[in-house]
């Protein structure tokens, strides 16, 4: 071969700075691209062998990555199809002419071409983000001389004949001074662990194979056991608890989609922790930011999705929205809903046991996706303070007779802290009312969503009003106090209640003498602001309370009959503090003083 010099065929000499600075989001991507190209070349050879176009021995096809710290080089070696000098000129010197794309076009009517990774022909040039010189030594699988290509990142290259006995390609990066971090073994291992963990050809680094070329999502569900799924979960998330269950995605029309999505156990104090679902394209890791592909409410799932039909930009780092992305998003939503419905129907008790975690996804889905509600309403559960579960229809039927107000609205009472609101729950139960427990961080939003979907249903927190007004049946009890006595009681409690609003009500004698409530809309808005992380005008306002005085209670009568002004004020203060205690609003020194006063009174 005669030595040859030439100029890379590009439209502008500024292409390399653009590639180095802007095309790729992170310099570490160079290794993903070069290893992917090596896998690509290997897969092409396997394809040609399966078609009878290559009759030689395949041999060991492991792709090898090595670092020479002293020579300041990184080498990526494969035993794939290799290139001739003419192919180097065609595929390397003409930027954006993708060999993989041409190969796919040539063999588009045959099977199993999905493993060919490259799309744009630009991946090789990511090497210049970290290398001051890049060298290729390659020998084609055809009987042609080996060739050597070298370029220093300018538009000039040199191509000569080379000594290479075996088929395949070595890419040698002479690392630039500002990129010597990549000469550290731990750094290379970190990058390979991230991007090459499931590449379909074995990748060897530092003497060991670092990837699993046959992850479970590439297999048929019929081949896999429950243990296989659990082991793969441990491989992905070694420090997580066992998942609740999983969904195996396996679609080939009208788009190609495979993967396994796991439902993790979620605690009540969960964070909206996304970046747990990993997106791959033909087993190459792309991103864990899957907001367009996976519906928002399912981004807390764990697992992997893989699709060659999700369009990527030329850096393979960012998704580009199109109709396939929307179809995949809808398909995932449907598969999740179908799985949940199947679990609910087949094993309701088991489904109820998982509800604490599953309910987060279902509620989030109902809040964020109207179509999901249509699928989920059958298996959306409500839990009462006695740990009984009901579907929405079952619960409405349960409270139909007793929990309707004067406007014929079904009133769903709920508590968000059963211990703190125990006095109010007890009061409701004395009336034969049922009380739900709604203590998830999402419940304020969920309640709003359900109220908008169910006709003539309203939710009220059990401590948001007096017992008579929680479910207002239009019946008013008479007060045993006259107007003058009412005014006296009101003035007395205004003095001890500070800025809170005092309201007098005629309640049954067995209800508490003083109750502290906060209107439902104020409580709910406060809860919604907290989960949204917003300090809007309601979040920043002091949340005033209403102090409800039961004018029919014997202690209010005793208060009026107390002639000593100081003693009268002290009793009023005790009753007010008792109400604070019932709401969990009394603590520290105030609680100590309350106990001391109570002991003294005894």
From TrEMBL:
<feature type="binding site">
    <location>
        <position position="83"/>
    </location>
    <ligand>
        <name>ATP</name>
    </ligand>
</feature>
<feature type="binding site">
    <location>
        <position position="37"/>
    </location>
    <ligand>
        <name>ATP</name>
    </ligand>
</feature>
<dbReference type="InterPro" id="IPR036890">
    <property type="entry name" value="HATPase_C_sf"/>
</dbReference>
<dbReference type="InterPro" id="IPR019805">
    <property type="entry name" value="Heat_shock_protein_90_CS"/>
</dbReference>
<dbReference type="GO" id="GO:0140662">
    <property type="term" value="F:ATP-dependent protein folding chaperone"/>
</dbReference>
<keyword id="KW-0963">Cytoplasm</keyword>
<feature type="binding site">
    <location>
        <position position="316"/>
    </location>
    <ligand>
        <name>ATP</name>
    </ligand>
</feature>
<dbReference type="GO" id="GO:0051082">
    <property type="term" value="F:unfolded protein binding"/>
</dbReference>
<feature type="binding site">
    <location>
        <position position="78"/>
    </location>
    <ligand>
        <name>ATP</name>
    </ligand>
</feature>
<keyword id="KW-0143">Chaperone</keyword>
<dbReference type="Pfam" id="PF13589">
    <property type="entry name" value="HATPase_c_3"/>
</dbReference>
<dbReference type="Pfam" id="PF00183">
    <property type="entry name" value="HSP90"/>
</dbReference>
<feature type="binding site">
    <location>
        <begin position="98"/>
        <end position="99"/>
    </location>
    <ligand>
        <name>ATP</name>
    </ligand>
</feature>
<keyword id="KW-0346">Stress response</keyword>
<dbReference type="InterPro" id="IPR020575">
    <property type="entry name" value="Hsp90_N"/>
</dbReference>
<feature type="binding site">
    <location>
        <position position="33"/>
    </location>
    <ligand>
        <name>ATP</name>
    </ligand>
</feature>
<protein>
    <recommendedName>
        <fullName>Chaperone protein HtpG</fullName>
    </recommendedName>
</protein>
<keyword id="KW-0067">ATP-binding</keyword>
<keyword id="KW-0547">Nucleotide-binding</keyword>
<dbReference type="InterPro" id="IPR037196">
    <property type="entry name" value="HSP90_C"/>
</dbReference>
<comment type="similarity">
    <text>Belongs to the heat shock protein 90 family.</text>
</comment>
<dbReference type="InterPro" id="IPR020568">
    <property type="entry name" value="Ribosomal_Su5_D2-typ_SF"/>
</dbReference>
<dbReference type="GO" id="GO:0016887">
    <property type="term" value="F:ATP hydrolysis activity"/>
</dbReference>
<dbReference type="GO" id="GO:0005524">
    <property type="term" value="F:ATP binding"/>
</dbReference>
<dbReference type="InterPro" id="IPR001404">
    <property type="entry name" value="Hsp90_fam"/>
</dbReference>
<feature type="binding site">
    <location>
        <position position="169"/>
    </location>
    <ligand>
        <name>ATP</name>
    </ligand>
</feature>
<feature type="binding site">
    <location>
        <begin position="119"/>
        <end position="124"/>
    </location>
    <ligand>
        <name>ATP</name>
    </ligand>
</feature>
């Amino acid at each position: 071969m005669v030595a040859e010099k030439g100029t890379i065929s590009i439209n502008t000499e500024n292409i390399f700075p653009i590639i180095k600075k802007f095309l790729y989001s992170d310099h570490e991507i160079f290794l993903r691209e070069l290893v992917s190209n090596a896998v690509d070349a290997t897969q092409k050879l396997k394809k040609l062998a399966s078609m009878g176009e290559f009759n030689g021995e395949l041999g060991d096809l492991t792709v090898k990555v090595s670092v020479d710290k002293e020579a300041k080089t990184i080498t990526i070696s494969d035993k794939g199809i290799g290139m001739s000098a003419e192919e180097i000129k065609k595929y390397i010197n003409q930027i954006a002419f993708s060999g993989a794309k041409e190969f796919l076009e040539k063999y588009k009517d045959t099977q199993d071409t999905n493993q060919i990774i490259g799309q744009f022909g630009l991946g090789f040039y990511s090497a210049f983000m970290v290398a001051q010189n890049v060298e290729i030594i390659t020998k084609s699988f055809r009987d042609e001389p080996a060739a050597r290509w070298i370029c220093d990142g300018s538009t000039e290259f040199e191509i000569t004949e080379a000594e290479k006995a075996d088929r395949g390609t070595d890419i040698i990066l002479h690392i630039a001074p500002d990129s010597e971090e990549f000469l550290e073994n731990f750094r290379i291992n970190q990058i390979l662990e991230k991007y090459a963990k499931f590449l379909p050809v074995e990748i060897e680094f530092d003497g060991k194979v670092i990837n699993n070329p046959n992850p479970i999502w590439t297999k048929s569900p019929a081949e896999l056991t429950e243990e296989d799924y659990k082991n793969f979960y441990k491989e992905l998330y070694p420090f997580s608890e066992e998942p609740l269950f999983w969904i195996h995605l396996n679609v080939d029309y009208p788009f190609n989609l495979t993967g396994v999505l796991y439902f993790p156990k979620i605690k009540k104090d969960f964070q909206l922790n996304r970046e747990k679902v990993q997106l791959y394209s033909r087993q190459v890791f792309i991103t864990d930011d899957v907001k367009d592909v996976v519906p928002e409410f399912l981004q807390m799932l764990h697992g992997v999705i893989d699709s060659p039909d999700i369009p990527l930009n030329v850096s393979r780092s960012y998704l580009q929205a199109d109709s396939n992305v929307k179809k995949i998003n809808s398909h995932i939503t449907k598969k999740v809903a179908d799985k949940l419905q199947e679990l609910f129907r087949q094993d309701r008790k088991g489904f109820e046991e998982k509800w604490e975690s599953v309910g987060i996804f279902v509620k989030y889905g109902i809040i964020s996706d109207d179509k999901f509600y249509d699928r989920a309403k059958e298996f959306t559960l409500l839990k009462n303070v006695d740990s009984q579960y009901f579907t929405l229809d079952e619960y409405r039927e349960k409270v139909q007779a007793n929990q309707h107000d004067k406007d014929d609205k079904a009133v769903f009472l709920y508590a968000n802290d059963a211990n703190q609101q125990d006095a109010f729950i007890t009061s409701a139960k004395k009336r034969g009312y049922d009380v739900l427990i709604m203590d998830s961080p999402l419940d304020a939003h969920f309640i709003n969503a359900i109220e908008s979907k169910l006709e003539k249903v309203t939710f009220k927190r059990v401590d948001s009003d007096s017992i008579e007004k929680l479910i207002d049946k239009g019946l008013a009890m008479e007060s045993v106090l006259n107007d003058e006595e009412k005014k006296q009681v009101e003035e007395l409690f205004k003095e001890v209640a500070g800025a809170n609003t005092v309201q007098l009500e005629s309640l049954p004698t067995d209800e508490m003498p003083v109750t502290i409530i906060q209107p439902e809309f104020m409580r709910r808005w406060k809860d919604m602001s907290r989960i949204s992380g917003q300090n809007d005008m309601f979040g920043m306002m002091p949340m005033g309370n209403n102090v409800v005085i039961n004018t029919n209670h014997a202690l209010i009568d005793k208060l009026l009959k107390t002639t000593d002004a100081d003693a009268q004020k002290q009793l009023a203060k005790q009753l007010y503090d008792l109400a604070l205690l019932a709401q969990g609003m009394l603590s520290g020194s105030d609680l100590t003083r309350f106990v001391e006063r109570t002991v003294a009174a005894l």
